[in-house]
């Protein structure tokens, strides 16, 4: 293996209150990967400084009119550009430092390429969120200090996720939390003044925006990058490890592809659609390579049908790497893709192409058709090995003619040797690849094996007599595919659920400050009915009742009764609470939407699951005659409101059933809206 820093064993965390770290974050673990990431962060700062100096020099050059000043500025600008290029080359060196990310098991295999995590700057949510809670929700923001601290701790933990499923879970829990935060605190009509800064993973150039979409996109990118690191860390000497690698690379491709299709205008180049398309191809190519390793792990038997199979598989890996290299060589990706990555893709394309020809040569040279052999099966396999047979040859005749088999096999060996030589040449042209010892050893051993086999059967005049061997058909028993992230299944408790159900208490709705109503139930009759569930609304209000005279309005949401928070209480719980006061004075706080057209609960019904329920409080009446008198007072409204209720029920029949998120109150069975429903495929980060 390469001289790589070996990850240290993670230290157990026993301290109370370190839940985030147990979930997949340990910033104190000094592993090779963490040291590499620290070097990346330091380089990002140097690149930021160089970019600022270059911008200043360019502005000065535009403004200066003195020839001597302009000449001096041009000289300084050339030095800055040279320094910036050296820093980017150093960052590229970190990107190809694959040894740190590989499995700690000694393996004679070509290293895989992981993605480094994007770095970010600290973000302080406290001032902005506190101001918004006070201004928008009219609540004491000091009561939410712990929740804001939890959010900031979770973000900080996401900067150092562990390289396993717990780390992925940590990132996804923060991504889910961002969906809640966006709905609670980020109105679509204005910026909140929180600046998010993330560094490009490939160039180190920072991107800063006041848009939460940059934060969400960067977390998704790091999730995909973490999957690539899990894939490269898998033990490729076991079937389970290789299956884990295949799964991790497919999931990485799924996350990156989802990012490409969902966040279509990301300002960071590593998250541009063109770059993400190439990264998806790279992940699928490495997954296909792991499939080949899994087939070869038990050993390749020198048997006709086994050799046919591995020849197809090797050709498949070579084909996907050729396609990857072609994609990496196209503008605009070519300018920013690490040169070492493109070189390694080319090296692997030739290497696996050479292996395909070597296995084809072995099955032709070493396996003569013997009596009792399955001639029809062998003929079918040989005919399917190529798109077309060489001119003058047929599958059955070639199988029966030992000389033809020998000559065709040697042709494959010559093509294998040519591919090996080209693979070694490409590796020698890249300084970073020359320093990966295991890569050089694998390429050299494969080349020597093909040369030795050809030397055993070489004859004078081969260069004149041999026909050119055809290409091997690329085919696999396990076609890798993108595994899309199951975002709808990700659940997390909303930190700010005390504000109330997200379907009602969100940033895109404007509220009146809470109004305090003091009233009594006249002979057990409150004078209004209730509807909805968490929160409950005032409905069918008698304009002459005590509550109406105290200022209650139809459509008001009940937020508290006698200082008992009612935002998460169900209708039956609110009813029980009101019953408990009898004819004593009741103090109730209510809020109303400023938009009167949307004040009724039906406007938020699209976030609810199930039909609305209406319960009458008239059942509290003691005297039937009095109850009749009360109901007569509002009888003129019943026909209209009943029609509206029917209409609302029709609307709720088309309710969107969104994924559930965990809440603190087990009795509040209403599902919160998924933050992922807020993602627009045409979301713009500009």
Automatic annotation (TrEMBL):
Which CDD domains does the record match to this protein?
BRO1_Rhophilin_2, HR1_Rhophilin-2, PDZ_rhophilin-like
Briefly, what is this protein's role? Binds specifically to GTP-Rho. May function in a Rho pathway to limit stress fiber formation and/or increase the turnover of F-actin structures in the absence of high levels of RhoA activity.
Q: What is this protein called?
A: Rhophilin-2
Family per similarity comment: Belongs to the RHPN family.
Q: Which residues form the PDZ domain?
A: 522-583
The family database entries (PANTHER family) matched by this protein are listed as:
RHOPHILIN, RHOPHILIN-2-RELATED
Locations listed in the record: Cytoplasm
- For whether the record's keyword set contains rRNA-binding, the answer is no
Species for this entry: Equus caballus (Horse)
Which keywords belong to this entry?
A: Coiled coil, Cytoplasm, Phosphoprotein
Cite the SUPFAM superfamilies for this sequence: HR1 repeat, PDZ domain-like
Would you say which domain of life the source belongs to?
Answer: Eukaryota
Stretches the record annotates as Disordered: 1-21, 666-686
According to the entry, every stretch annotated as the BRO1 domain falls at 111-460
Query: Where would you say this protein principally sits, based on its record?
Result: cytoplasm
Domain REM-1: from-to ranges: 26-100
Q: Which residues form the signal peptide?
A: none
Please name the InterPro entries in this protein's record: BRO1_dom, BRO1_sf, HR1_rho-bd, HR1_rpt_sf, PDZ, PDZ_sf, Rhophilin-2_HR1, RHPN1_2
Q: Might you report a single GO cellular component term?
A: plasma membrane
Query: What does the subunit comment say?
Result: Interacts with GTP-bound RhoA and RhoB. Interacts with both GTP- and GDP-bound RhoA. Interacts with KRT18.
Tell me which Gene Ontology terms the entry assigns under biological process. Answer: glomerular filtration; negative regulation of stress fiber assembly; signal transduction
Gene encoding the protein: RHPN2
- The answer to whether keyword Phosphoprotein applies is yes
* Coiled coil ranges: 33-90
Q: Per the record, a Pfam family?
A: BRO1
């Amino acid at each position: 293996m390469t001289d790589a820093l070996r990850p240290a064993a993670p230290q157990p965390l026993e301290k109370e209150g370190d839940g985030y770290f147990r979930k997949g974050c340990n910033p104190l673990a000094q592993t090779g990967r963490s040291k590499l990431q620290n070097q990346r962060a330091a380089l990002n700062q140097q690149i930021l400084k160089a970019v600022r100096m270059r911008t200043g020099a360019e502005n000065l050059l535009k403004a200066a009119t003195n020839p001597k000043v302009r000449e001096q500025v041009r000289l300084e600008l050339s030095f800055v550009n040279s320094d910036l290029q050296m820093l980017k080359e150093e960052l590229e060196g970190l990107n190809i430092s694959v040894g740190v990310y590989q499995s700690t098991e000694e393996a004679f295999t070509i290293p895989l390429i992981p993605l480094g995590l994007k770095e970010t700057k600290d973000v302080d949510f406290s001032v902005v969120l506190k101001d918004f809670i006070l201004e928008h929700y009219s609540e004491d923001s000091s009561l939410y200090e712990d929740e804001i601290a939890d959010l900031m701790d979770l973000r900080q933990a996401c900067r150092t996720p562990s390289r396993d499923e717990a780390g992925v879970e940590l990132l996804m829990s923060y991504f889910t939390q961002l969906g809640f935060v966006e709905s609670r605190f980020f109105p679509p009509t204005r910026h909140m003044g929180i600046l998010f800064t993330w560094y490009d993973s490939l160039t180190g150039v920072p991107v800063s925006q006041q848009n939460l979409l940059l934060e969400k996109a960067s977390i998704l990118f790091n999730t995909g990058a973490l999957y690539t690191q899990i894939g490269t860390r898998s033990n490729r000497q076991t079937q389970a490890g290789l299956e884990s690698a295949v799964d991790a690379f497919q999931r990485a491709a799924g996350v990156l592809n989802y990012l490409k299709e969902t966040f279509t205008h990301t300002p960071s180049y590593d998250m541009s659609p063109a770059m993400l398309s190439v990264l998806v191809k790279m992940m699928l190519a490495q997954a296909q390579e792991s499939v080949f390793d899994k087939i070869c792990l038990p050993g390749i038997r020198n048997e006709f049908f086994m050799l046919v199979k591995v020849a197809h598989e090797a050709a498949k890996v070579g084909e996907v790497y050729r396609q990857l290299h072609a994609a990496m060589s196209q503008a605009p990706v070519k300018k920013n893709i690490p040169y070492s990555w493109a070189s390694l893709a080319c090296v692997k394309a030739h290497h696996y192409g050479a292996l395909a020809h070597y296995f084809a040569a072995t099955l032709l040279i070493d396996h003569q058709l013997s009596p009792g052999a399955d001639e029809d099966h062998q003929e079918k396999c040989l005919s399917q090995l190529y798109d077309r047979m060489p001119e003058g040859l047929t599958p059955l005749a070639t199988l029966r003619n030992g000389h033809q088999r020998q000559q065709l096999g040697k042709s494959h060996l010559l093509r294998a040797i040519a591919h090996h030589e080209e693979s070694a040449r490409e590796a020698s042209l890249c300084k970073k690849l020359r320093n990966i010892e295991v890569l050089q050893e694998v390429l050299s051993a494969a080349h020597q094996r093909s040369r030795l086999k050809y030397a055993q059967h070489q004859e004078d005049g081969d260069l004149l007599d041999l026909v050119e061997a055809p290409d091997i058909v690329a085919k696999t028993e396990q076609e890798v595919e993108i595994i899309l992230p199951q975002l709808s299944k990700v659940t997390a408790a909303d930190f700010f659920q005390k504000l109330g159900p997200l379907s009602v208490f969100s940033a895109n709705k404007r509220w009146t400050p809470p109004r305090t109503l003091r009233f009594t139930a006249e002979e057990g009759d409150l004078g209004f009915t209730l509807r909805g569930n968490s929160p409950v609304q005032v409905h069918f209000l008698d304009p002459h009742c005590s509550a109406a005279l105290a200022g209650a309005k139809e459509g008001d949401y009940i937020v508290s009764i006698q200082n008992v928070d009612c935002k998460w209480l169900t209708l039956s719980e609110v009813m029980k609470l009101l019953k408990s006061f009898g004819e004593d004075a009741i103090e109730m706080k209510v809020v109303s939407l400023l938009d009167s057209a949307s004040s009724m609960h039906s406007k938020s019904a699209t976030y609810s699951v199930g039909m609305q329920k209406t319960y009458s409080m008239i059942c509290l009446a003691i005297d039937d005659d009095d109850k009749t008198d009360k109901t007569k007072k509002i009888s003129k409204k019943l026909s209209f409101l009943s029609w509206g209720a029917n209409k609302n029920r029709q609307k709720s029949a088309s309710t969107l059933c969104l994924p559930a998120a965990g809440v603190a109150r087990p009795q509040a069975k209403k599902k919160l809206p998924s933050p992922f429903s807020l993602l627009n495929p045409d979301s713009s980060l500009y």
